[in-house]
């Protein structure tokens, strides 16, 4: 099918009314993704820069297309702000030199095409240089920003990397894997061409928080990574060379390397700011013109608290539709920052799928609908709606599980998409999730099994808060046996979770019960805990004098005999 990319870009910049559904070209791109990608590549090539070496469906040279072709234009590739150092900038030329030298050093240490390289960096220059060095050598990267030691051990065990890139002070997090650490002294001399991946080659193995359990590895193919970056750069965000994109507070494991690839492929600049620095002073967010700004509820609330004025530097802002739909707070923020006439959109990104998978029009069609639930499957990808009964068949009604095709070998979809006439709406998730993320309940309860003597068992119970997108809260049930919880027990639990796993693993709430949980084969019976919690039985037992006396008696018996590891049927208790 012929695609007029100039007209498509004009439509996207103008915006279109979602009532009529996706424009004809958008719907045709679902049927002919190959032709659509070819049209985008031709328009992407541009003038004044070397053409991309990648050919959709044939070969992909990431290092050349992300860095080399932009070197001569002396543009900044990455800007980062830190409260002490201020702004730090690295250009495409410097990035090319740093990554090429690092690749030369790593090649001498044995990194070859297909080698699994784990990158233990947060978002910053070190991550970018190591990522590009891996791509130059044809390696298979995994992003693993520093977490607690228990979370790191679980993920490194699942990955079994061949090499690890990290900074020396992170060695305590790599216990048992220290010999895999790559050495980077900055003295390598680049002298070889970059690697070319085949379409089906796995360029990355990603720990996606959208997959249950979240320490599951998801392969990212070269084709999905490159095409996703191209489509997002041109269509989702409308980036041109020299533009800037920022997404403060967007979870790294869900959104990277997709946002970095998108920015670099278009010759644009990725702007990185930490939420903690913006909490101290949000002014740096206003210092550069932003072609696209990603806004989370936490960033929105921060700017509302600081009474940030007009954000004249923002040309388009976007939010993740899986985050809480608080229309009143969003509209208060839009009004305060003077963004009523600025295009906004919903963008759901899955880096393991190559980038955005659900997007909405980014035009300004209705000032009263600047925050909405409209989404469309991203242009240029085949997809379907599956039956929510998990049978694998197509959805018989107008609500189904959004599934990218081909789905063989891909984790099952989790997003419920509702079709109303020609419009599509984000309708929540299959099962309980935290802003779309699978909550690692087993990891959390595992780190609490030992180390806190006042606990005799824990279980995590998800609770739906209702609302348009069926958001969930995860409540940790903490059982303290025959003794009441100490005054500081809540802080001690949070401290242990944060120390061993990381802050993102904290539950939304902790409920204490001076009871013993039911067990099966030595493990806490989560189903029993959930039933007892939702029926109010735990609360009644915790406040009933007779049951508390029986609990105290049981505690004395367990002190003498030790736990048996298994209780009788729930009906007998």
From TrEMBL:
SUPFAM superfamilies xref list: Acetyl-CoA synthetase-like
Keyword Ligase: yes
Swiss-Prot/TrEMBL keywords: Ligase
Entry's Gene Ontology molecular function annotations: ligase activity
InterPro entries reported for this sequence: ANL_N_sf
Gene3D superfamilies per UniProt: N-terminal domain of ligase-like (3.40.50.12780)
Name of the protein this chain belongs to: Long-chain fatty acid--CoA ligase
Organism listed in the record: Corallococcus sicarius
